[in-house]
Amino acid sequence: MRLLPSVRSRMLLGSLLGALGLLALSHIASVVVIHQYRIVLHAGHAVLVALGAVVFVLIGFALVQRGLSPFDQLRTRLSAVREGRQRLLEGVYPTEVQPLVNDLNALLEHRERIVKRAIAKAGDLAHGLKTPLAVLSQEAERAAAAGHPDLAATMSQQIERMRRQIDYHLAHARAAAAGATPGARSSVLESAEGLTRTLLRLHADRGLTIDVHSSPAHAFRGQREDLDEMLGNLLENACQWARSRVTLASAEDGSALVITVDDDGPGLPPAMRSAVLQRGVRADEAAPGSGLGLAIVRDLAELYGGSITLDASLAGGLRAALRLPSC
């Protein structure tokens, strides 16, 4: 793609050429006047004229720089909007720039309204599907009580698969709509502590320990629901395979936030680490689940410009490293 010269370089070049043109004209005019009226120009006068010319040129360049400063401010504030530190473009701009700023703010507000409607519709869809799935779950329980364990097991398996598919696609749609929403900020510590309390209750009979090491200042630039979805899947997977301990930690790496989840379970062979991040792939086919948990994490992370990698943990099991944009 061919790039046009910057506005700054074109204005500076134009000012320089204009100054050179005016200097040439003034030189010609001075020569004509001196020759016509036989004026004797002393060296001191020449130096003063030259200094005055330099001062005027410098003032001209300073005015050009000052005239371009609103574009620098606009760029800085656009970066703040993109990074979620501001919702709209703030400030007062020259008459040539203000209409552009007004149009950009109108576009941002329109996008925000669309995203809110999309999130609301996703929530309505999830709520509408909960009741039919709950009815089917009751029918599976009745089938088991009536002496049809095979039928009940098949129904329960398919119901769970449908639930996971719904969760997967709703999370994907919500993140696709909300990933670029300005101003979103979610605390890693708050999300991790809430999920930890739930998982400890679910695994109370196993005596698991879940340690959380995260600073209150560590925040993800995105929706809280999406952070809960990613951390929930990682912690749930770690709890499923851990022998006694799961550890979640967060650290800042430049403009990114790195969240690691370690367990002391059997780990995963290197050849399987990439495969389990794909949809429908499970490390153990005999274990319950649909194989979508890690795939959901991968898709959500990528929608926010992040990533997830799996590696061996110092605790002896598996380490999941989630890299996300930070606030």
Spell out the key features of this protein.
single chain, 327 residues, alpha+beta, Heat Shock Protein 90, 3 domains, 5-stranded mixed β-sheet, two-stranded antiparallel sheet, 8 helices, 12% strand
Written account of the structure:
- With 327 residues, the chain is α+β, with helices and mostly antiparallel strands.
- 60% of the residues lie in helices and 12% in strands.
- It is built from eight helices and seven strands; from the N terminus they run H-H-H-H-E-H-E-E-H-E-E-H-H-E-E.
- The strands form two sheets. A five-stranded mixed β-sheet has the order 2-4-5-7-6, with helices on one face. The chain has a two-stranded antiparallel ribbon with strand order 1-3.
- What's the CATH H-level superfamily name of the largest domain? Histidine kinase-like ATPase, C-terminal domain
**Rg from Cα:** 32 Å
Mean pLDDT: 78
Into how many domains do the coordinates divide?
3
Q: Determine the N-to-C terminus distance.
A: 32 Å
Number of helices: 8
CATH architecture of the largest domain: 2-Layer Sandwich
- How helical, in percent, are the residues? 55-70%
User: How much β-strand is present in the residues?
Assistant: 5-15%
CATH class of the largest domain: Alpha Beta
